[in-house]
Design goal:
The chain is mainly α. It has one domain. It contains eight helices and no strands. Helix 1 packs parallel to helix 8 and helix 6 crosses helix 8.
Length: 199
Amino acid sequence: MEITSAVGAVLGAFGLSGAAGLNAWLPLLVVGVADRIGWLDLGGSYGWLSSTPALIVIGVVFVLDLVGDKIPALDSVLHGIGMLVAPASGAILFTAEASLSAHLPPAVAAVLGAVTAGSVHAGRTVARPFVTGTSAGMGNPVVSSAEDGTSLVLAILALAVPVVAFVAILILLIGSGWMALRAARWLRGRRGRGRPEPN
């Protein structure tokens, strides 16, 4: 594979794994369908993603997660589970995309995918209590829907225009870090107000 295609595959892999940080199941579904319709060739190692049983299971779990993430309290539970699921999904997606190139060892691809997805997911997990606390939970469905929509756009961009997806992931990681800092300050402020005044 020529170097330009190899770079494109790696940039696209960053986009897919970043999308998995926002919604672990949606990019898997997009990649599976893309392989099924011939838009993408995952090859033998990851061809199972486009099998009918895999698409059904991923689709069902995606719908359950899609609904559950809109419900305050339940979304926190799902985010806790996502701390394991998102990096795993990111590792699979990065390795599957990068498997189109022989220029990146699978172990390195898996680590890059897991770290990218885990970092994005950690940012949204830290920020969600801030959203819940400042909107009495009313903002959760809005933020969750925005995350789902962004995940879908990123997954499609990763396959169609990898460099744009990569730039978007960089912006997303910076934004996640900023939101995490704001959320941490907000939580510290709440704890400080909750302490009894000294006599």
